Amino acid sequence: xxxxxxxxxSKTSGGKIAAFIxxxxxxxxxxxxxxxxxxxxxxxxxxxxxxxxNDSITALQANQAAIDALGSPxxxxxxxxxxxxxxxxxxxxxxxxxxxGPxxxxxxRVVGTKPARSEVWIYDxxxxxxxxxxxxxxxx
Length: 140
Description:
Blueprint: H1 3-48, H2 51-62, H3 64-70, E1 75-76, E2 81-87, E3 90-101, E4 104-114, E5 122-129, E6 136-137
Antiparallel strand pairs: 1-3, 2-3, 3-4, 4-5, 5-6
């Protein structure tokens, strides 16, 4: 093997090693992004599948003051934020739901508790906040 063939052979091996390392790092990044997306999806699904979320959307869509402010239909946004905690029948909730209608946008704010042995949530804060306007209570 002459000097030119030996140089080309070593470049090819080095290129293969670099490509292998690059693909491995790329795969780790993709796996990390998939894990983050899965966690985010799980948290969003957990919030949307609980009574406080469903109670809030139902109350909002039936509230005439909210309909007057945002228009109809009022739709929830995709990314609620906050937390719902349930432990041995007791629970706490503290989250926000972005909402929008044809006439504007707002945020439903929910803070409450669920006593043990009760199916009913008690909301300390249950309102629609619209920037530049008074909060609209959603009822109790």
